[in-house]
Write a structure and sequence with these properties.
With 98 residues, the protein is of the alpha+beta class. Strands 1-2-3 form a 3-stranded antiparallel beta sheet, with helices on one face. α1 packs antiparallel against α2. The protein is elongated, with a radius of gyration of 13 Å.
């Protein structure tokens, strides 16, 4: 799997989400909230490899257009589908982190 290169340009103004960490086990990725202080604990967000790629780029502050272009190139899908899927997944990420 390709993860976003820190040297890529086009970062947005969002700071890196260091309170969250992405973990992988048995081919499944989990986004864990690392700064939880007690019960009840927030459930991790389970995602596939494409979701992990989007998270990696998002956490580094890349704009949606750049992330969707990376998804398009990585998975060889139409530009419109990559953009719509990327926007929807980022919406889900933001809801989960709210």
């Amino acid at each position: 799997m390709r993860f976003c290169d820190i040297r890529d340009t086009g970062r947005n103004d969002m700071k890196e989400k260091t309170e969250y960490q992405l973990r992988e086990a048995a081919g499944v990725f989990w986004l864990l909230h690392m700064t939880q202080t007690g019960f009840p604990f927030e459930k991790p967000l389970v995602m596939n490899a494409c979701g992990a790629l989007i998270w990696d780029c998002y956490a580094k502050g890349y704009p949606v257009d750049k992330i969707s272009h990376i998804v398009q190139e990585t998975y060889d899908i139409p530009e419109k589908q990559a953009k719509e899927d990327t926007q929807e997944f980022i919406r889900q990420l933001e809801e989960h982190m709210a």
